[in-house]
Prior knowledge:
92 residues
Amino acid sequence: MYPTGMTLGERLHYIDPETHTEHFAVLIGPADxxxxxxxxxxxxxxxxxRRAALSKQVTGGTCHPVDFTHAVLTPKAPSLFxxxxxxxxxxx
Length: 92
């Protein structure tokens, strides 16, 4: 089930829950039982499949139409725990 007026291949903006930054995304599948849309998210240098709820609440893990206007997002720094985990993973 797609929200009214949405079609497969529609471009959206996805907000990353970890960095709170906005990325272009493409709708690739209908909403699941939790109402989360299936998206291909365009990160710099890579493409990832993600699920996100369509929302007017500009928070991490949500998506919205490209023409939805909102205040500029301020990226938040990763937590110390995530930085340490990333460092440990890179050392393996």
